[in-house]
Amino acid sequence: MPTLSDLGQLPKRLVLGRPVRSDRAGESLLPKRLALPIFASDPLSSVAYATQEILIVLTLAGTAFLYLAPWLAIAVVLLLGTVVLSYRQVVRAYPSGGGDYEVAFKNHGQFAGLTVASALLVDYVLTVAVSVAAGTDNIISAFPSLDEHRVLIAVGLVALLAAANLRGLRESGRTFAVPTYAFIVGILVMVATGLIRDLFTDSPVVAETADFTITPESGFGNLTGLALVFFVLRAFASGCTALTGVEAIANGVPAFKPPKSRNAATTLALMGGIAAVMFAGVTALALAAGVKYVEHPCDLEGFADCETEPQRTVIAQVAAATFGGDGSPGFFYIQAATALVLVLAANTAFNGFPLLGSVLAQDRFMPRQLHTRGDKLVYSNGILLLAGFAALLIFAFQADVNRLIQMYIVGVFTSFSIGQWGMVRHWNRELRTETDAAARSRIRRSQMINAVGGTLTTVVLLIIVVTKFTRGAYLVLLVMPILFLLMKAINRHYSNVSQQLVPDTDSRTLPSKVHAIVLVSKVHKPTLRALAFARATRPDQLTALTVNVDDAETRALQAQWEKYDIPVALTVLESPYREITRPVLDFVKGIRRASPRELVVVFVPQYVVGHWWENVLHNQSALRLRARLQFQPGVMITTVPWQLESSVGRDDELGRGDGPAPGDLRRGLTDDAEVTPYG
């Protein structure tokens, strides 16, 4: 028959499944076919909104500057290629999974390492929030009536992702592989179909917004000079969202099957190539179809119900135009695949955040709990922490992609830049010791790749900060220093604790004698058991101690003490203000002052109860005493438990009947226990 503890574990087992033994950790390692959807779903899914973000900025000036979109897309693709090549050097040089954090820490020092860590932690939370919000947008594009439930849908999806990841890497990989590959195939088929129709048939693709016009926003009508440059750079910065998640593979190298570095580098190359083709294809098809997408739907002249109807995403408009309308099977396939992969793109963060948290915890910059694996050999605490912060962010910004995305990619380009320049220093160090000409040539080639990557990502970071600062990036720049200082404080605490716990001669010195104190409230079984245990330790001195809060009760206690002929003298402390904790504390301090080398052991009788509400009725005085005594040096607290009937198996619920079970008489469970000041 299942016990109460088994029933309490049931919800956990339904969500997570059976726990996995530690010696099976190797079985959770990922082959490339599963690693790609797990670690690359974020950059692959960004195809769904990177083009859209470029169009949002360009259409601020009407349609006059849409001709810039292809050039901006080319710039983004070139940057993506450079970053992918740069990270291939990282995974080969640092396969332990620290990624940019490890690179920065080892090559630039603690300050740079914690800067990267704070940037990545913020970016992972934003990755979940943006990806899930964008996925919710695509669900609403197919079913507009769900718009009023936007936040609830997004938070529910975060919860589902957390549950899937808590089940373990391989299981989540299988869960995410099908939607990711379905999205890749769907987008490639859509792009090919649309471009073939446009180039080789008489029925080109035409978006539902192709005939709409856009009124330029105030100040964007006639852009020239520096204003035009700033405008173009802002559109480019928005398009750089296509690069989010590239670093996750570098952080997740330990999760790959051997040879880890080679498999991670291959996965990076596959991800970069697929993402570049998809992004370029969607951008070309969106421009060919005449897609219009704006920040405020009512800026679209021709959109009749802009106040009540949500605006369809760029992907939705392109799919409808390519496959024959918003009721076609192709349209629903693309929307379903896009929504799924956008939601599952958050899985990149659900793998990267816990791994980075584990590394930080191992380096004592985060709580040690983040380094502990759960039942399924995943870092459960990191997963839950990420899900909580992402859900809070979604709720705070009402799952609005346009607002959330303004804070996006500041963190990721911060880590890109610092990490790439760290790699340049790493290769410099390698060159000092390498003498083989062929090896030196390979090192110089890698160094050049990282130098170019560092230069480009630093320039892009400056562009992002300048163009997005007032639109939300300032929040990230505010949170990052807070996280930085928090990690420094945690590290300082752990360092101080380690120094205090180093063994010295004092810690090996035996106490001069042991003084045992048994707290007494009444003469009953818990008290007698505590006295028996204290006597069994053979202390140098034993004191039975009670506090006089009521004269009549104290006299009755003394009478019972004499009646039972207890072989220990009863010491009574006066308490004119009816306090219990303060007189006991003063008594213990007095012993320590008189004999600093004397060890004081306080025996505290305490009830063990079976229901949470029973704790309200018992143990309050005992808990207060223990809480105060634990701060006293040279004092040990020994809890003497007394199990009440409710804590021993819930016999009535299990059908024991009314008679005592074997051992009840010996344990004293057939008598009613009294409520005492200490219980």
Please tell me about this protein's structure:
Helix 3 (47-58) packs antiparallel against helix 9 (225-239), helix 4 (69-93) packs across helix 9 and helix 9 (225-239) packs across helix 17. A 5-stranded parallel beta sheet has the order 5-4-3-6-7, with helices on both faces. A two-stranded antiparallel ribbon has the order 1-2. The two termini are 32 Å apart. The protein is 61% helix and 6% strand. The chain has helices spanning 4-16, 32-45, 47-58, 69-93, 99-108, 110-142, 150-166, 169-200, 225-239, 248-251, 260-289, 314-323, 329-362, 380-396, 401-404, 410-433, 437-468, 473-500, 505-508, 525-536, 551-563, 581-594, 614-617, 620-629, 664-667, and strands at residues 213-214, 300-301, 514-519, 541-548, 570-574, 599-608, 635-643. It is of the alpha/beta class. The longest helix has 34 residues, at 329-362.
Please state how the strands of the largest beta sheet are arranged side by side.
5-4-3-6-7
Q: Major sheet: size, sense and barrel closure? A: 5 strands, parallel
The end-to-end distance, rounded to whole angstroms, is 32 Å
- The portion of residues assigned to helices is 55-70%
Radius of gyration computed on alpha carbons: 33 Å
The mean pLDDT is: 83
Poorly predicted ranges (pLDDT <50, ≥5 residues)?
Answer: 1-10, 21-27, 650-679
**Shape descriptor:** elongated
Q: How many beta-strand runs? A: 7
Q: What is the overall number of helices?
A: 25
The share of residues in extended strands comes to: 5-15%
Q: Structural class from helices and strands?
A: alpha/beta
